[in-house]
Amino acid sequence: MAEADYTSIKRIVDELLTSERFGNETIVRLPLIMPDGSNATVRVVPNGSDVFVGDIGLAHIRAESLGSSTVGFANTARSIQERFGIDRNKTELFVRVPADHLYRAICDVGMASWQIADSIAGRSEERAAQEFGEEVAERLIRYFGQEKVELGDAVVGQSQTAWDVTAIVKTNSHRAVFQAVTPASVTVYKAKAAFHDISVLPNAPKLVAVVKNKEELGNKLSLLSQEAFVIEEEEPLSRYLQAAA
Amino acid sequence: MGMGLADIMAAEKRLSLFPGWVTPREENNYTFFNAPIEIGGVVQKGLVLHGGCYETRPDRHVTFEIHYIRTPARKHMALMRADWRSISGGHTNPTPTGGRWPAKVSYSHLHSFRENYLPARDRMRKDLDTAFDMDPEPQSFQELLEFTGNSFGISNMSIVAQPEWRYDLLAFGGPQDNG
């Protein structure tokens, strides 16, 4: 591994912002990493005393790659572009500003493009979490029987917050809360907050986090295990019974 | 039980046809195609090769990607992507957990299936966020087709026609406000 000294740090800093000229247009790459690992990128096209700054439709291309429709892209883009005060045609975010506003325009268009792509990628994670929750719910019904599994219910924690949980399983004498958890940070932290809030209730139910693979969680596994049992989805019935008991 | 993602990528694949590049978008000259993919002579449900580039940026920013819709009514997911001479520059990999991935790779890179597949969940990493340099880097569109065919396991990539790149509009390809 290379030793970090001022020269090596400066070299990386100089790489953070790069540009390239194509005819009358300048491509500017910003130090904002899109969900796919590329840089947020804008084009700058001069027009007299004004400049056009656009994202070349790159946020839209990322959205398409993530399976988002043009309508889905537009819905996400609307609020973000309003926040930055920029325009949009079908696929490209842009502004036209006097040339002395170019600095801010490049930052705003780049930032908006990044936020839209990041937001759509985040929802893709939510969708994955939802699908996993459905898989876990199906397994709980298979293992415990429909009559013992309550789906779609919320559990009110000590803070009076109602937490949506994957399922509540009623055993002979008590209840066990099962929560499907994917490795995405937002999902883990939400489950962690819910588990903590529920665990401090008098007569708190048993808490069980169901994950696809414990190793994938890394250090976040111990965050969950502070309040909950953690089992892998494909464990046999006996392990589920043990966790719920 | 249908094919898992790894089975799809391991199988020898063919494009059923090349539908042609669509009329470029008015606002930024972006053009693309979606070609159905077949395995063992059967056109696979929800499996396509997507290609995209800008008509006015010859020999730059060409993307090929395999899209798959696993469950009807769900959105597609990308299984693998080749980015050639991206105008966004190089690609930055996530902070490595095992130190396996280079921090930054060049503007021609491959988001391979293997590096972005999560076998325990039969899912892909978010937006195929891990990539490696194309090696060797294709020097022409034809070489890119060959590279992509070999990497994606598609035996007849050569039926994809070169985009009708416009070399004359680059300096004056002004942006459009409406579309």
Describe this structure in words.
The complex is a heterodimer of chains A (245) and B (179). Chain A is built from eight helices and 13 strands. Chain A is of the alpha+beta class and 245 residues long. In chain A, helix 2 packs parallel to helix 4 and helix 3 (70-84) crosses helix 4 (102-144). Chain B is α+β, with helices and mostly antiparallel strands. Chain B is built from three helices and eleven strands; from the N terminus they run H-E-E-E-E-E-E-E-E-H-E-E-E-H. Chain B has helices at residues 5-10, 113-116, 141-152; strands at residues 13-15, 30-39, 42-54, 62-68, 77-84, 91-92, 104-105, 109-111, 117-118, 123-124, 132-133. In chain B, a hairpin with an 8-residue loop joins strand 4 and strand 5. Residues 171-179 of chain B have low confidence and may be disordered. At the A-B interface, strand 1, strand 2, strand 3, helix 2 and helix 4 of A face strand 4, strand 5 and strand 6 of B.
Topology:
The complex is a heterodimer of chains A (245) and B (179).
Chain A: H1 6-16, E1 18-22, E2 25-33, E3 39-47, E4 50-54, H2 58-65, H3 70-84, E5 87-88, E6 93-98, H4 102-144, E7 149-151, E8 154-156, E9 162-164, E10 167-170, E11 175-180, H5 185-199, E12 206-211, H6 214-217, H7 220-225, E13 229-232, H8 237-244
Parallel strand pairs in A: 11-12, 12-13
Antiparallel strand pairs in A: 1-2, 2-3, 3-4, 4-6, 5-6, 7-10, 8-9, 10-11
Helix pairs in contact in A: 2-4, 3-4
Chain B: H1 5-10, E1 13-15, E2 30-39, E3 42-54, E4 62-68, E5 77-84, E6 91-92, E7 104-105, E8 109-111, H2 113-116, E9 117-118, E10 123-124, E11 132-133, H3 141-152
Antiparallel strand pairs in B: 1-2, 2-3, 3-4, 4-5, 5-8, 6-7, 8-11, 9-10
